[in-house]
Amino acid sequence: MKLLTNIYQVGGPSLTHFFDAAVYLMKGKEGWFLIDCGTPEGYEQIKENVKKTGVDPAEIRFILGTHGHYDHVGAAHLWKQEFGCLLYLHELDREQVENGDSVKTSAALLYGTKSEPCKVDGTIAEGDTWEGDGFTVEAMYTPGHTMGSVSFDVTAGEYRLLIAGDAIWGGYSEKIGSNEEAWFETLDKITARHYDFYTFGHVNPQLIADADARLKEAKMAFANYYNPWFKTFYETYRY
C-alpha cells in the first residue's frame, strides 16, 4: 500500500503473515531499500506485495532494521540469499542476530520458532542518513524495547514522518534486554521533536496524524501498569 510518494508498506498486519511487523519499501537515490523485512513465514507474500508496487524485489539493495527481533528482521537471511541484500542494525542488537539467539530475538518466546543466524553487514548509529527520492531518512537511537533499537525520522519539504519500530507500543521483558530507564529517555527524545505523522512496528498500513499529541500521550501512558499476561503469537487463546 502506498503511504507517501516513493514510500510503501508491504508487510505487517492485514497485509502478510500475522507474525510480521510492519515492513516499509522506500525508493532511495541509488535503489530501493526496506525498513525491516518481516519473518520467513511472511517472506513470499512480502515479495508479492513488493511486485504489486511495480518494483522488482531484485532492485532492493539493503535492509535497515529497527532492531534485532524475529518479527522485524527474521527473514533477512532469505533476502540476502535470494537477492544479496545487505542488513544493517544497531551494534547492540547485532550479536543476537548473527548468533541466531532465539530468546533474545523473541523467536522462541513469542513465535514458537527459532532464528536463523544471519550476518549483519553494517551498523546503524545516531544521525546516520540515507537519501531517498524526495526525502531524507535519519536514524535515531531509541533504546528501551531493546538496547539496540532505532527509529527513523523521514523528512521531506511538506512533511516529517516518524517510523518508530517498537520504540512506541513495544513490549517490555528483561528476557529480551528491555530497559525502562533508557525507554523513558527515548520517549523524551521523540516527543522533543515535531512530526506530522507517525507509524510503528505493528500497525495496519496507515499514517497516524496528530502525531505530536499522540506521541506525548503514549509517553504519559508508558509503564503506568505492567501487564504480565502478554499472549504468545504462535498459540491460540480461546479467551
UniProtKB/TrEMBL annotation:
Single GO term (MF): beta-lactamase activity
Domain Metallo-beta-lactamase span(s) in chain numbering: 20-202
Leading EC class: hydrolase
Family annotation (Pfam families): Lactamase_B
Enzyme Commission number(s) from the entry: 3.5.2.6
Entry keywords, A to Z: Hydrolase
Record's protein name: Metallo-beta-lactamase L1
Species: Eisenbergiella tayi
